[in-house]
Design a protein that fits this description.
Layout: H1 3-12, E1 18-22, H2 29-44, E2 48-53, E3 71-72, H3 77-85, E4 89-93, H4 105-108, E5 115-119, E6 130-133, H5 140-150, H6 159-172, H7 183-195, H8 199-207, H9 212-224, E7 226-228, E8 233-238, H10 240-245, E9 268-275, E10 280-287, H11 293-300, E11 304-305, E12 309-314, H12 318-330
Helix pairs in contact: 2-5, 2-6, 5-6, 6-7, 6-8
Bound molecules: guanosine-5'-monophosphate (5GP) and manganese (II) ion.
C-alpha cells in the first residue's frame, strides 16, 4: 500500500468510526478469517465495527471468534442496508468487484463513505478510495497482517486476531501446499505462533470435524469423477438429488474439487455442483502449473479468480454444462 494511503487510513482510524466490514458471497475461510480478524483489531481501537456477510457463512467456520456477531444481508436486508449506508468507513475484503456480493451489490453502489479494499484477486474494479490489491499474496489474511503492521499496530495482533488471520492463510494455501505460499507466508505464521495461536487446534476445527454425511457425499463425488487423459483433465459432478440424499449443508462440498488434481498426470480439474434453488450450476476450477483457470472461467463460465483456482457458473442443465465443458476442452491445448 502507498505510504500516503497508510497515513490517510491512520488519520481515519484515529477517532472512533462506524465501520462495516464485508466479505464476498458464500464466504470461505479467508473471507471470514480476514473480516473477523479486522473486526477484532478495530474493536481494540474502540471503533463501532460490524461484519456483514452477503449470505450465510458455512458451519465449519462457526467456531471463529465472534462469528455469532456477523450479520447476514440476505436475512435482514433493510436493517443491514441501513447500517452499510450509515457507515463512516467500509472495508471490502477478499473480493474486488461488487457483483461478488450478489444482491448486496445494489447497496454497495450507493455507498458514499470511503471504501478500503484488501484483496488478492486479479483485475480489481475501481470502487475503493484506498486499495491494497496484490495478486502475489496467497490470502487476504496474509495481507491483513501486513496492513495492520504497516499501520503501526503490530502490538494489537493478539491471539484472537492472529487466530482469524491464521485461518485464512491455512485455508487459501491448501495448508501451505499451493505455490502462492512464500517464505514470507511462513514468517508471518511463525509470528502468529509466537503470539500464541493454537495451530493444531485450528486445523482440528477446520478439517477434523467432518460429518458422516459429508464423507458419504465425498464418496459419491469420487464415484462421479470422469478423467479425460488426453486433456490431462478430470471433473466431478454433484446433482441436487445427490446433495439431498447426503443431507447436504453449506460447506460440505468445500475442498472436494482438489481430489481431481491429486491424480497423477492431471493438471486441470473442475467440479460442477447443481443449485436448484438458484437455477445454476456452480463451478470450481483448479489447475497445476501454467494453465490459467481464471482466464478459462472468465471466457466461458461468467467467472474469475486466480491462475490456479477460479470459479464460475452455468445456467444450462448439468448435462448441457458438462457437454459444453467437454466441447471447449476439445478445442483447448493443455500442457
Ligand atoms: P472456489 O472455487 O473456491 O469457489 O473459488 C476459487 C477462486 O475463484 C476464489 O478466489 C474465488 O473468489 C474465485 N471465484 C469463485 N467463483 C467466482 C465467480 O463466480 N466469479 C469470480 N470473479 N470469481 C470467482
Ligand atoms: Mn482469498
Amino acid at each position: 500500500m502507498k505510504d500516503e494511503d497508510i497515513s490517510a487510513i491512520q488519520e481515519l482510524l484515529s477517532t472512533p468510526q462506524k465501520v462495516v466490514i464485508i466479505p464476498h458471497r458464500s464466504p470461505d475461510g479467508d473471507a471470514m478469517g480476514s473480516t473477523l480478524g479486522l473486526y477484532h483489531f478495530l474493536k481494540q481501537l474502540n471503533h463501532d465495527a460490524v461484519v456483514i456477510a452477503p449470505n450465510e457463512f458455512p458451519e465449519f467456520l462457526a467456531w471463529l471468534p465472534s462469528s455469532d456477531t456477523v450479520l447476514v444481508y440476505e436475512k435482514e436486508k433493510e436493517k443491514t442496508a441501513g447500517i452499510i449506508l450509515n457507515a463512516d468507513l467500509v472495508f471490502t475484503l477478499d473480493f474486488n468487484a461488487f457483483h461478488r456480493t450478489g444482491e448486496m451489490e445494489h447497496v454497495l453502489k450507493k455507498v458514499t463513505a470511503p471504501i478500503i479494499m484488501i484483496d488478492h484477486h486479479q483485475k480489481p474494479d475501481d470502487y475503493a478510495k484506498y486499495m491494497f490489491s496484490d495478486t502475489k499474496y496467497g490470502s487476504t489474511c496474509e495481507m491483513l497482517y501486513h496492513f495492520i503492521v504497516d499501520l503501526g499496530y503490530k502490538n494489537l495482533i493478539d491471539k484472537t486476531v492472529a487466530t482469524c488471520i491464521y485461518t485464512g492463510i491455512v485455508t487459501d494455501s491448501g495448508s501451505f501446499r499451493f505455490p502462492s505460499t512464500t517464505s514470507t507466508t511462513h514468517r508471518v505464521v511463525a509470528d502468529l505462533i509466537d503470539i500464541g495461536i493454537e495451530n493444531g487446534a485450528v486445523h482440528n476445527s477446520l478439517f477434523d470435524n467432518d460429518s458422516y454425511d459429508r464423507l458419504r457425499l465425498l464418496g459419491q463425488a469420487l464415484q462421479n469423477m470422469k478423467i479425460l487423459y488426453d486433456k490431462k483433465t478430470s471433473y466431478i459432478t454433484l446433482s441436487q438429488k445427490e446433495l439431498d440424499e447426503n443431507n447436504y449443508v453449506k460447506g460440505d462440498t468445500e475442498g472436494i474439487v482438489n481430489y481431481g488434481l491429486s491424480i497423477k498426470g492431471i493438471v486441470f480439474t473442475a467440479i460442477f455442483i447443481e443449485h436448484r434453488e438458484e437455477n445454476i450450476i456452480k463451478i470450481s476450477f483448479r489447475s497445476q502449473g501454467n494453465f490459467d483457470v481464471n482466464q478459462f472461467a472468465r471466457t466461458h463460465f461468467s467467472g474469475g479468480g486466480h491462475i490456479n483456482a477460479a470459479g464460475g457458473k452455468s445456467y444450462l442443465s448439468m448435462k448441457d454444462t458438462v457437454a459444453k465443458f467437454e466441447e471447449i476442452l476439445a478445442q483447448t491445448t493443455i500442457n
